[in-house]
Design brief:
275 residues; alpha/beta; Rossmann fold; ten-stranded mixed beta sheet; 10 helices; globular
Length: 275
């Protein structure tokens, strides 16, 4: 019997970044899921503050070398990997010199200003993950996203990649955290999302280009929602309730592994009933 495959995509993962609640879950959930008999792959951005030598990152040449076109500009996609030996798991890093490696902070500059190109970085990261998974030839049953920077994964999977055999049957789970920001993306944001197969109608939900619209779009395009923190961003709770999607309430650090994996089974069983 084929093992269930779970793809984890997170903007934070310990020990490569500080141990926030998101980073902790993103570190130990894949391990616990693998120990429960499932196959996993884990992705995160290769932020410039991650020390490559200390964490023993190395480039995967066979996966690198692709260029992603964003707003009519080519951006080289570099894939790096590191191993967490104690967990017997690998972490894949999406890298690009301009967007990630050259910066010594995550989302804000030295004046604590939100990077103006964070929208480009999010588009690049999410598309980079999907294109790398295609290169791996590894079709996930569940795609579990953590953090606002992953919020475009559900959009792409349900629009531009909806007919791709690699993702056609994938079910999306989106975890919500208190990771909001006040800034609004640029007027060109929707143009940067356009790919072959994307229609203007599919972009309407992202027109406001703010945090709430990103969360709303991710929620409505996902098959299940997880409350990954005891308090999520103000206003998003109402969107979750209105969506009618299956919801896993916040779980304590003591029992979340079993609860999350039972939720995966629920989402997969529901998809089989619908099919």
């Amino acid at each position: 019997m084929k093992k269930t495959r779970v793809l984890f995509v997170s903007q934070e993962l310990y020990p490569y970044l500080d141990q926030t609640e998101m980073a902790r879950i993103s570190r130990f959930l894949p391990q616990g899921t693998q120990e429960r008999g499932r196959e996993i792959r884990t992705f995160m951005p290769k932020f410039g503050i991650i020390n490559e030598r200390r964490n023993q990152l190395h480039e995967v040449i066979r996966l690198s070398g692709m260029n992603l076109i964003i707003n009519n500009h080519d951006h080289p996609l570099i894939i790096k990997v590191a191993s967490i030996q104690s967990a017997r798991m690998q972490v894949y890093f999406i890298d690009n010199e301009e967007y990630f490696n050259s910066r010594k902070s995550i989302f804000h500059d030295e004046r604590n200003k939100f990077f103006k190109d964070n929208e480009d970085r999010a588009v690049f990261f999410c598309r980079g993950v999907l294109e790398t998974v295609k290169k791996l030839g590894w079709n996930p049953d569940i795609i579990h996203c953590h953090g606002w920077m992953t919020s475009l994964i559900p959009f792409f999977v349900k629009t531009s990649y909806k007919d791709d055999p690699m993702f056609r049957n994938s079910r999306l789970v989106y975890s919500l955290y208190n990771d909001g920001y006040d800034e609004r993306f640029s007027e060109n944001f929707l143009k940067k999302l356009m790919m072959e197969g994307t229609t203007d109608t599919e972009l309407k939900g992202l027109k406001n280009a703010d945090y709430t619209s990103l969360m709303s779009n991710a929620i409505n395009r996902s098959d299940g929602i997880v409350l990954g923190a005891p308090d999520i961003h103000n206003g998003v709770s109402a969107i979750v309730k209105k969506s009618g999607k299956p919801v896993l309430e916040y779980q304590s650090p003591d029992n979340y592994l079993d609860a999350y994996n039972a939720f995966y089974d629920e989402i997969l069983e529901e998809s089989q009933v619908v099919a």
